[in-house]
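Supplementary Methods S3. Input chains for the assembly prediction are listed below.
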Amino acid sequence: MGIFGWIGRKARAVAAAISRGYKSFSGQATFEEADRMYEDIKKRFEEHKAFFEKEVENISSQIEEHVQSINKSKETIKTELFPAFAEKMHILKDIPVSESYLKEYFNGSNLKVDSIKTKANLYLIDFKKNPFKSNALAIISLGFYTRKKAKETLEKVREEKKRLEEEMVRMDSELTKLKAINEALDIIASYYTSMVELYNALLSRLDNSVNFLIIKCLSYAHKIVHEQMSIKLLPKTQQAEIMAMVSISKIMKTMVDTKIILEGKTDIIQRNINSAKNDLHIQKEEINKLNEAA
Amino acid sequence: MDKVKFQELEDSIRNASPLELASKLQEAELYDKKETREVIDEVYKEFENQGSLVDEVVVPVFMSIADGFLESTATTRKLRKKGLTASRIVSDCQSFSYENPGEEVIIPNGYDELKNARDITIEYGESVRIPYKNNRKVYDDDSKEYYKARAVQANGGRKNLVDEYTGERNITAYQNNADNRRNDPNHRYQAQPDHIVPLAKVHEQLKGNYALSDEDIARIANSDSNLALTAARINQGEKGKGGKKDMTNKEFVDDQNRREANGEDNLGLSQDTKDRMLRKGKEAGEAIDKDTNQTVLNNITGKGTADQKLYVERYKEQEKKLGRSLTQEEKKVIDQQLAREKQISIGKDLSKNAAGQAKDYMIGNIIMYLIKPLYYEISDIVRNGMKEGVGAETIREALKIRFSRVKDYVVSNTVHFLGNSVKDFVMAFVSSLIEGVISLFVGIFKQILKVVKEGIRIFVQAGKVLFGKHSSEMTPAQKGDKIVQILGGSIIAICGIGIEALLNKIGIPEPWSIVLSTTLSGIASALFMLLLDKIDLFSVKAEKRRMRIEEIFDERIKDIREAENTFNTAAIETMREQNLQFNAIKKNIWDGIETNNISTINTGLFRLASFMHVDLGYNNQTEFVEKFDSGELEIAL
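Predicted structure tokens for the full assembly:
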């Protein structure tokens, strides 16, 4: 290489220095900084947005599962447990069971994530897209015009960067919110499941008390009409059994009626009352038979 | 978001029933619903609406006119001497707020400083200096006769001498040796030594210069460079044809030209004569400036010449004391001593004047310090109402609040203000002292000194911008913009001096030339600042706008993070507590079921109802039985 190599190196260094000097003079260096910043923030924002959307989808599907579980519990309570309880209690009291209940659906996050502004919106000069025009303007204006425009472009990109930072923070907070909702619904769903189990257990205990009352009434030759049936006639324990059942029913009635999620779709579902009525009719006939036998 | 909002958010989560919790979490607002683009748009609008045409053009122009008119009377000029111009009062008052009172700028612009220093010399000239009128002899010494005698001697035996104005050898030295070849019965061709720049003019120019004694002025005015031998017909003039008399050469030539143009009688001067006179006038003026500057420099450095009256007296005193004549060496020592005394006297005058000026600036500063909060209150009353502006119920209460605000501001800032005032006084003293020294010089040298001083001022102010205590708060672009403002402002202020000189030259007398130049330089300054603002050479506006946007978003991001944190903590803790509570109740009920203990079951259910925020309608078994049997208990599922 020798002397030619040395000359080559020096020539390249001089050329690089001239290029740097010109870029500073024309504002191209500032523009390039703005452009790099734009590309960087665009990449970062889009990755963040993609992650957010994926996370929203995941969490939303989990939330939907919990909502479905709650809906299922509500349906069980409305279509099975409450009618069964009403049927058992009909001798004592007519307990109306409404024919509808709330079925909820979760429709995901309602955060509208904005997009990044386009280069056309932010760039007041573009050395990449219009190199000839930009350099001509730089030379004509002795760099004053193009430096100013490049600086303003950089400021606009910085503004956009800050704006997108808030958008990203909004996404983060939305995810935190969704995660908390998901967790809360998970727990609430477990409340419903637990309550259904408890209700079933208490419902089976109720039979004894009601039957005990019927027999007691018959022994007094009362006609079995609930207007004349008084639970005062029952021993304290049976009274307590009925109270327990009424209490849990009232709690669960609130649970069924409560709108668990604020946003999303809510359907009022008509339960299949006919089948329930049919069940009631069969049970009534059995009781009459028992009555006649007594 | 304020603390109350965070507390409300936390309370709504912590107080939610287990069934409401999810909806309460959904309900929580962790970020402002306003779109981020809207935030940016609002800031852009805010910046676009900043500075109306009235604020940026009408007010400064009007204030510049007011400043100009304040120059028209001696009373209002006293305000300027205190640094109180209409522009400054309005600008400082308008930019004042209790949060951001702004910095006091004690030293006015270069033009005002020059006018203040000039006022001192004018006052000295009027009240201390021996007036020219009726005292011509004080300033007219024998030098011109020596000048003529030397010229006659140098002329040898020739009868006619050369007229220094016409260039012709046609003037005779004495009446008794006239050139009889010419018919000159009235001796109009007799040689007379003329003060090229008339004595009256030299006196007028130098009377305020307290670094020059009367003898110094006489010496300068009667120096050879200001004398010319000319014919009596030119010097004294001819009846109806005009004469030089107390005119400058230029005035005289202009007068002759006017006469010629109007067809009036005139001296019939050739163009060569006129040109020569103008040239000589110019040269004499320059020589006077040079002599003056040299004399001032000698006097203030202790190398000056004592007045004859003084040194003669001192010689005599000393000779009397010694009982013999003084040697040349002894006389020289006395001369040097007198020169030093002269120097000390000038120094004292300079210091006294500078201290007086600095004191005036301080008084102006104190007035501004007190006026600004008062103006703020008055403008707030006009803008927002007496009571409404401070949220008071009665006028009395409003007055009390407003007065307290002014008092608190004045009291709490007094120590700081006084501390700064000492520093400001020193700065003002130094600046006035230098301005005072500059005011003693004349001509181009004075202008050079003034430019150097302004250069140093710009340099110091730029240094403050670059390295001062607030420099770290400024971006490079803001610093650049500020320096351009300082540079432009100073240059325009200096231009005021040029405008004034120009106006004087075209015949506009004082004080109107000062009124106009003050107005014009003020308007130029306002327009220059407006131009700078519009051009925004360093894109400072864009930078400030971006910084404002960043500031807003930083605040919003901080709020979101804080809200998120509050939300998350409250949600997690509430869920954990509720879950634990539910599981305990559930266990309690199951225990009752498993042990067939209905009492435990009911206790658990009462707890469960309370946990779920459900009102059962009864609190115990007796109440339940009674309500059940009476039909009072509603059970609808």
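Chain B has a mean pLDDT of 89. The beta strands of chain B are 160-162, 169-172, 191-195, 227-231.
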